[in-house]
Design brief:
- This protein is an all-alpha fold and about 325 residues long.
- Helices cover about 70% and strands about 0% of the residues.
- It has 13 helices and 2 strands; from the N terminus they run ααββααααααααααα.
- Strands 1-2 form a two-stranded antiparallel sheet.
- Helix 2 crosses helix 12, helix 3 packs parallel to helix 6 and helix 11 packs antiparallel against helix 12.
- The protein is globular.
């Protein structure tokens, strides 16, 4: 018997040409898909700015210097909607992030297996509820509840602050109700991402920390959170993008404002809610163009948020230092 190395036959030469054709075709398909994505985004950006050109030329820098939105006198300003967008988005993210991290830690580290699956499914189901349904629930249930119970309690405890002073909306349609709705919409997104991140942390690291005498909280603080911090930052930015662009649910519960109010109990407007609520009823070309100008600003904000997300992820990625 021969003790030499065993030779295995190579694939038939007849398949080599088809393999090469398949590789070339796959490469071309991916290039076309990537270019198509860039082309679609470019077409959207071009069309939005093209339709907003009239408002850009007519309003100029004054558009960013006033809170007045008066179609009767053809005077338009964006400050009121920038304020509403910033407050509702960032405050809802500030509330939703610790809630989401806590839920994700419970599901990944503490919950029994039977409970874990049920709660995780309910959280994901919450993310699937249409915006218009959440907005309708906000009008019928959340708004009246906020006006009757939550808003008075906040006013009694924090009424010395401008955002918690002033009269309370009787129907609950206000900026603080919009913040609550956006919080509900952000929580399932951030929770799902954080839960997957926490489950991917190597169990050896967790067991090692516990074996060295760390408590479960110390293990979470010293092992799980540092390992997932870049992903948590990305999840937060994704939640912020969700809040910035939400239109239907916010339009239904925010009340719509024609003047500036420091109080969160008063009606307000955001960039997205103003576009959704007024574009169909725009009476002049300048008003319609000004509303599209708001959309252009929203596009720029989305681009900035994505750039910031990339910077944060790269800055806090724990694998980046190991790759150097």
């Amino acid at each position: 018997m021969s003790s030499g190395p065993v030779e295995y036959p190579l694939r038939g030469s007849g398949r080599r040409l088809s393999d090469r054709v398949g590789d070339v075709g796959f490469r071309l398909l991916t290039i076309v898909a990537a270019l198509l994505t860039v082309g679609v985004v470019g077409a959207i950006v071009w069309k939005v700015f093209d339709l907003a050109h009239l408002a850009i030329t007519e309003n100029g820098i004054h558009f960013f210097q006033t809170t007045v939105w008066d179609p009767v006198h053809s005077e338009y300003g964006v400050l009121l909607f920038l304020y509403g967008t910033a407050v509702t988005s960032f405050v809802s993210l500030l509330i939703a992030t610790p809630l989401s991290i806590a839920i994700a830690l419970y599901l990944s580290e503490l919950a029994p297996r039977g409970v874990r699956g049920v709660i995780a499914a309910l959280v994901e189901m919450l993310a699937a509820i249409p915006s218009v349904v959440l907005g309708l629930w906000g009008i019928l249930v959340l708004g009246p509840f906020m006006a009757a119970h939550v808003d008075p309690a906040l006013q009694d405890a924090l009424g010395f602050l401008p955002m918690f002073s002033g009269p309370i909306s009787q129907n609950g349609l206000s900026m603080i109700t919009a913040i609550a709705i956006l919080t509900i919409m952000i929580v399932p997104i951030v929770t799902s991402i954080c839960r997957e991140l926490f489950l991917r942390v190597p169990h050896e690291l967790e067991d090692g920390a516990l074996a060295l005498g760390a408590t479960r909280w110390e293990m979470v603080r010293g092992v799980i959170l540092p390992s997932a911090r870049s992903g948590i930052a990305a999840a937060m930015i994704l939640g912020l993008g969700r809040a910035l662009g939400e239109a239907i649910a916010v339009t239904q519960v925010i009340g719509g404002a024609t003047s500036f109010h420091a109080s969160w109990f008063a009606p307000a407007d955001t960039l997205a809610s103003k576009i959704a609520g007024n574009y169909q009823s725009a009476s002049t070309r300048l008003e319609a163009s000004s509303l599209i100008y708001l959309a252009a600003i929203l596009l720029i904000l989305g681009l900035v948020v994505n750039i910031v997300a990339q910077i944060i992820v790269r800055r806090f990625d724990p694998m980046r230092g190991a790759a150097r």
